[in-house]
């Protein structure tokens, strides 16, 4: 491993994790400094912003950095991103006004989504840096923006006590950072004068299956949260998000551990190594079972204590400690689905990938309202398990069909 690759791995991993942890801490900060109701509004905005971010990014980053032959020009990738950003932003505003949200909630949705869409805007510039093997710069950018995010929310709420003004400052500071730092650094690695290659619309059409998959995959866990807020209100939504937070951090950490092994699965698939591939699947299943057992034991022993440490100013959250158990199972299902999506991508089964995600979305949409009405906020956890569980089972079925053909 050369020195630049070591720098890339170190800085990109550390910076990305720091950025995610600072984003996850927003719920803690808003609950502590602005109250449960304000955090419920933010949680609703987060649910909508996640889907908009998937639409804006269009599943294009991997396609961009692997386009070594230059089928599409750097300029084309940039222009296509402006198209998807515009579509995602417009969709966010339409959704906010179609639903019967308060004026304050609509501002929170619009500003938080705008802040998250900066990630998609910077993503295409980070793609130029990645092709130049400068992921260390990308990692540093993520780390700095993570700290800016946490600092802005803390200072904004302390000084103003106003979530809308705080989110406006958050959006502005992150946009300024990308303009002042990311763009100048990335511009030197992008040939934006070149207009050769395919058109913007050809690029969007070629990446459309990846975009559909990414949007569906994000929407599955978002559907129960959307209905949670609609059926039970913003406070219950806030409690659900706050209890989910420590489990969500575990989920991201575990996915980071699993993803590097995707390269091994790709090699085994291309070499048609049936024994090695299925041995890897069995090891994956065993790891997921161990994760479930360890997570269930951990929250049973330490869950209430952990929530009391995270939310010292909101003791009522402790009443929702039992939510941790189904959320651990939801996390295991999510990790399984994420890995299976990668494996189906390796197998180039885009049809199975999209149909599996559609099945999960349909399941989540069908059971969310009945489960919420029957089990209150616990219904959101059960609906999440149902949606992601159905997704994982369908993805596994499609993968096994592809395996039968690949290893025949």
Automatic annotation (TrEMBL):
Keywords: Cell membrane, Membrane, Transmembrane, Transmembrane helix
Membrane topology designation: Multi-pass membrane protein
Recorded superkingdom: Bacteria
GO cellular component, one term: plasma membrane
Residues annotated as transmembrane: 40-58, 79-98, 155-179, 243-269, 281-303, 323-346, 353-372, 378-401
InterPro entries for the chain: Poly_Biosynth_Transport
Location of this chain's protein in the cell: Cell membrane
Protein name per Swiss-Prot or TrEMBL: Polysaccharide biosynthesis protein
